[in-house]
Every structure is written in structure tokens, then in C-alpha cells.
Design a protein that fits this description.
Blueprint: E1 4-7, E2 14-17, H1 19-28, H2 37-45, E3 54-57, E4 64-67, E5 77-78, H3 80-84, H4 103-113, E6 116-117, E7 121-122, E8 131-135, E9 138-141, E10 143-147, E11 150-153, E12 156-159, E13 162-165, E14 168-171, E15 174-177, E16 180-183, E17 189-192, E18 201-204, E19 213-216, E20 224-225, E21 228-229, H5 232-240, H6 247-263, E22 265-267, E23 271-272, E24 279-283, E25 286-289, E26 291-295, E27 298-301, E28 304-306, E29 311-319, E30 322-328, E31 335-344, E32 347-356, E33 359-362, E34 371-374, E35 377-378, H7 381-397, E36 400-405, E37 411-417, H8 437-440, H9 445-450, E38 467-468, E39 488-489, E40 496-497, H10 501-510, H11 519-528, E41 536-539, E42 564-567, E43 576-578, H12 580-586
Parallel strand pairs: 5-6, 7-8, 8-10, 9-11, 10-12, 11-13, 12-14, 13-15, 14-16, 17-18, 18-19, 22-43, 23-24, 24-26, 25-27, 26-28, 27-29, 28-29, 29-30, 30-31, 31-32, 32-33, 33-34, 38-39
Antiparallel strand pairs: 1-2, 3-4, 20-21, 34-35, 36-37, 39-40, 41-42
């Protein structure tokens, strides 16, 4: 089958459907998408709120809880103990299918009736009250999308790690602070796109380094200080001269590091031990295309946050399973699911939400250990498949129409949601600015409301600050335990934050200054160091006429390198971006 170019229903831009895409859609029995890959990703992100949390009360036991749903939402929200408990039966919310109304409207009504769990946590018990989207964790605080980790604080997208703070998109960290896009680092702080490093600080794009400081593009090095090689004794003497515990000194070092990173050589993509793949931050993968943040996976496309063991997956966010399409949080042990959000160990699920250990469900919410249910109503096995086929036909003949109007009330765009489309964005249980969509695809309040989505103005911060940042002693050794009782006014935004005991102990042990901005502002700084989830077609910038001192490369002995690639560095960005061959010839 040949490639086809189609127009996106949402943004009206053209996008290609490749032959392998058609083969996948035919394999799982769904029609090709009518949204482009970018709009499909944005739509799914709108259904995932990780970091916007609220205080509320469980609608069953009435105890105070932390929830990802604001108290003014129309949903029934249970605490973890009640949602997993036997005090309610989700089948009691079952309903007959209404052939006079579109399926998506009926599902939306189910969303508002069936109880939802306040925070997403699986196989996690201790110290997780202030964490969301965690699996197999303990002692995780104000951290999100964490897998099989312990003692992780103020971080996001961290897997298989222990005692790490303020990090983003890393795995197998231990005793680390401020790492971004890294793996297998130990006792290392402020590393960006670096892996397999030990006792190092302020590195960019370094691999297998030990005791290195303020350097870029290093490979297999020790005792490198500001890109210069020293003996062990010389390095230790120079590193002792830097007062990392001083906030003033730390700010100067950060500024120096940002300038150093801007001058460093940038490989077109952070792709390691991977074949036939495109995207960014991909390691140990095969046939992973147009994907971001993936490892130990195979045959994946148009997906983000793909973890160990994933295979045959299209258009997913947060996945660790097989044969999935258009979903969020596919969950370990899941197989053969389409159009879903938040599944665990389930098979043959379609258009469902928050279901676990189940099979053969359509349009269901919060079911566990169930089979052959439609809109939370139980059916016999022999009834189920014919009924689902009839619903699919109904979805195609009576689609839900999402309408966008202008200031005069005139309809400017009508989007048709038939079988084969993910849930309409306006049906998300979260406001657009609460969700991940606003981080990766930011819109103004006016733009959000024009699109027919929901915007929610943030609540005023409930606590009055008791300490200004300029009153914090400059050096960590001068900070007393009394800071644990203070509410600190963020030095950047209007919010406040606190220092917790385990954080203070870590900062003292590692000789790191007390942060002067809140955890949200620190997260924003880390997030802005990452490239967008988008690819541009570019040519390698290695050019002897511009960089005459560059060593000659065997594949282009003169002039500009002819190699082209797909990269997450936009055309207008200032970084020097090299292809794989030129990059490998230059790193040391």
C-alpha cells in the first residue's frame, strides 16, 4: 500500500500515513486517524494531569485527601483505600446504551457518575500522599510519573532510582540532584543529557565520566575540570576551592554552565544503542519512530514516555505494554487495547477509563476483574462482540460533532468524532492548563476557550510566607533546622514552598545551597532545558568554510557535510547540530 497525504481535521495541516501505518491499523481493526500526529499527541496530553494537585475530601469516607481533580469538578472522587475497597460496586453505575445519542456524550455522563481514584498509584504504599502516576514506589514526594523508585523528591519521569532530587526524565539514578535526560548516574549533580557518570557536577552530554566538573562532550574521562585534564590530586584541590554550598557561588556556576552548554557540540538526537529509529532520548530500541523518551522498546511509533518491554504500540503516552493504540498510561501487563486512559493488566479494552485486571470492555470506567461489559453493564460472552460491532456502526452513523465558534457565535469548524478517534479534548476531566497539554502545547486562556476547551484560573496559595529568600543564610552550613518550620516566599513567582527534613539532610551531606525558588519554578527551569516533542528536517552543520579548525572527516573531506536527519532542534535554534558521523569524530 502506498503512502497517503491527508488533511488534519483539527489544525488543517497535511500529514502522511505511511504503508506500515496502514498495516498496523489493519492489524488491530481500526480506521486510519483523521488528526495529524501532533494534534493526536496534544489531545491525549489534555487527558493527563500529573502536577496540579488539590486538597479535597473523599466522597465516600470523607477524610481529607490530595487529588488531581479540583473540588469544583463534577466528578465523584475516592481516596485510594476506598476506590480499591469493597464499599462500592462500579457495576451499579451501568446503563443501557442509548441509540438516539452519540456514544461520546453517553461516556461523558458516565465520567461524571462513576467514582474515580484521587491519585494514580499502583503497588505503592508508604510515603506517597503527595505523588501522582507512580508504580512500585515508596517515599516519593511532589514527584510525578515515577516507576520502581524510592526516596525521589521534586522530580518527574524517573525510573528505577533512589534518593534523588529535582530531576527530570532519568533512570537508575542514585544520590543525584538536578539531572535532566540522564541514566545510571551516581552521586552527580546538575548533569544534562549525561549517563554512566560518578561524582561529577555540571556536565553536558558526557558519558562514563568520573570526578569531572563543568565540561561538555566528554567520553570515558576522569578528573576533567572546565574541559581541561588534571591529575587526581590537582582535580581534588581545584574542586575543594569551589564553595558549592554558597547560593551566590552556585548561581554563578549555573550561569557559566548554561553558557558552556550553548557553545557545546550537539548531536542531532540523543539516540543510543538503537536501530532504525527517529525522535529524541531513545536508548536500546529498535524500530521506534517519531518517539520521545523511550527505552528498551521495539516497533513503536508516535509515542512518548515509552518504558521497558513495550512493543507494537502507536500513539501512546506512558506505556509499558504491547499492541496498544491511542492511549494514556497503558500499564504493565496490558495487551490489545485501543482508545483508553489508565489501564493496568487488561486486554481487549476500548474507549474505557481507569480499568484494571479486566478484559473485553467497551465504554467502561473504574472496573476491576470484569469481562464483557459495556457502559459498566454486564453482558454474556456471546452477546458482547455483536453488541460492540453494532455500537461501532452507530458511532460512524451518529458521530459526536465538536464545534468551534467565533466571537459572533458562528461555527468555524466542526470536528467529527467517529469510531477510531480518541476522546474529544473538551471531555477531558481536567482544565487544559492543568494538563500536560499546556506544558508541551501551551495556549493562552483566550485560545483555550476559543477552542471550546476548559480553562481554570489557579487558586490563591493558601499559606502566608513566613520567610523571604533574602533572609536565608547564603551557605548551607549556616542554615539551622528552624528552616523546616518556615514557609518560604519563592524568589521567582508568587507561590510559596517549604524545605522538608530529608531534603535538608541531603543538601547538607552533598554541600548544596538551599534553593531560592519553589519546586514549580525549578521544574520549569529543567523542562526548558529539554527539546520539544517535534522533529525538523535539517542538514548537518559541520562546514569547514565556517569552522576551518575542525578536523577533516572521512565521509566529507571538504566543504559542508551532506548528511541530513530528523532532529528536535528547530531550524532557527543557535546550537551547532551535527550528524552522527561528524559528532562521533569530534567527541573526546
Amino acid at each position: 500500500m502506498a503512502s497517503e497525504t491527508r488533511q488534519c481535521q483539527n489544525c488543517r495541516n497535511s500529514f502522511a500515513i505511511e504503508p506500515d501505518d496502514f498495516s498496523f491499523y489493519e492489524k488491530i481493526g481500526v480506521p486510519p486517524p483523521t488528526f495529524c500526529p501532533e494534534c493526536r499527541m496534544q489531545r491525549k496530553f489534555a487527558f493527563r494531569n500529573e502536577r496540579t494537585l488539590y486538597r479535597d475530601a473523599c466522597d465516600l469516607c470523607k477524610k481529607q485527601i490530595i487529588s488531581m481533580y479540583s473540588p469544583d469538578k463534577p466528578f465523584t472522587v475516592y481516596c485510594r483505600e476506598c476506590w480499591y475497597g469493597d464499599g462500592w460496586d462500579p457495576l451499579k453505575f451501568g446503563r443501557e446504551y442509548d441509540w438516539n445519542r452519540p456514544f461520546f456524550l453517553q461516556f461523558r455522563e458516565m465520567q461524571e457518575r462513576v467514582p474515580r481514584i484521587a491519585l494514580f498509584s499502583i503497588r505503592s504504599e508508604i510515603g506517597i500522599d503527595y505523588a501522582n502516576f507512580i508504580i512500585g514506589c515508596r517515599n516519593v514526594y511532589l514527584s510525578y510519573s515515577i516507576v520502581n523508585s524510592e526516596s525521589v523528591y521534586y522530580s518527574r519521569s524517573i525510573d528505577w532510582s533512589k534518593e534523588s532530587f529535582d530531576s527530570l526524565n532519568c533512570r537508575e539514578l542514585e544520590m543525584c540532584y538536578g539531572n535532566v535526560d540522564g541514566a545510571r548516574n551516581y552521586k552527580s549533580h546538575h548533569l544534562v543529557r549525561s549517563r554512566d557518570c560518578i561524582e561529577s557536577r555540571f556536565l553536558f552530554d558526557c558519558v562514563n565520566c568520573q570526578n569531572c566538573f563543568m565540561s561538555t562532550n566528554l567520553r570515558n574521562r576522569q578528573f576533567v575540570f572546565r574541559d581541561k585534564q588534571y591529575s587526581k590530586e590537582e582535580y581534588q584541590r581545584k574542586i575543594r576551592e569551589i564553595n558549592f554550598g554558597s547560593n551566590r557561588v552556585l548561581n554563578e556556576i549555573r550561569k557559566e554552565c548554561f553558557e558552556l552548554m550553548s557553545r557545546a557540540l550537539h548531536k542531532y538526537a540523543n539516540i543510543v544503542k538503537t536501530t532504525n529509529s527517529t525522535g529524541n532520548n531513545i536508548e536500546n530500541c529498535k524500530n521506534v519512530r517519531q518517539c520521545f523518551d523511550a527505552y528498551d522498546a521495539e516497533d513503536i511509533k508516535y509515542s512518548n514516555r515509552v518504558t521497558k518491554g513495550s512493543k507494537d504500540v502507536y500513539d501512546n503516552i506512558g506505556v509499558a505494554s504491547e499492541l496498544l493504540y491511542e492511549g494514556i498510561a497503558g500499564g504493565f501487563g496490558s495487551y490489545g487495547n485501543n482508545f483508553f486512559s489508565f489501564l493496568e493488566a487488561s486486554q481487549n479494552i476500548q474507549y474505557s477509563d481507569w480499568c484494571q485486571n479486566s478484559a473485553s470492555l467497551f465504554g467502561c470506567i473504574s472496573l476491576r476483574k470484569k469481562q464483557y461489559c459495556i457502559l459498566n453493564k454486564q453482558y454474556a460472552k456471546e452477546e458482547y462482540e455483536p453488541f460492540v460491532s453494532k455500537i461501532i456502526e452507530h458511532m460512524n452513523t451518529m458521530p459526536y460533532i465538536s464545534k468551534v465558534t467565533n466571537d459572533k457565535g458562528q461555527i468555524t469548524r466542526g470536528t467529527s468524532y467517529k469510531y477510531g478517534e480518541f476522546f474529544p479534548t473538551e471531555f477531558s476531566p481536567f482544565a487544559y492548563n492543568e494538563s500536560l497539554a499546556n506544558e508541551y502545547f501551551p495556549l493562552t486562556k483566550e485560545e483555550v476557550e476559543h477552542e471550546g476547551y476548559v480553562w481554570r484560573d489557579p487558586d490563591p496559595y493558601p499559606h502566608q510566607a513566613t520567610l523571604q529568600v533574602n533572609a536565608i543564610p547564603d551557605h548551607i552550613r549556616e542554615v539551622s533546622n528552624s528552616i523546616l518550620n518556615e514557609i518560604i516566599a519563592c524568589g521567582s513567582c508568587k507561590r510559596s514552598y517549604r524545605i522538608i527534613k530529608s531534603e535538608l539532610e541531603f543538601l547538607r551531606r552533598e554541600n548544596l545551597a538551599i534553593p531560592r525558588i519553589c519546586q514549580d519554578c525549578r521544574y520549569e527551569e529543567r523542562f526548558n532545558r529539554r527539546n520539544p516533542l517535534k522533529l525538523w528536517h535539517r542538514q548537518c552543520l559541520c562546514d569547514y568554510s565556517i569552522y576551518p579548525n575542525t578536523a577533516k572527516h572521512s565521509h566529507h573531506p571538504e566543504g559542508r557535510c551532506p548528511n541530513e536527519f530528523e532532529t528536535s532542534y528547530a531550524l532557527e535554534r543557535p546550537e551547532v547540530v551535527y550528524c552522527e558521523q561528524c559528532y562521533q569524530a569530534e567527541v573526546v
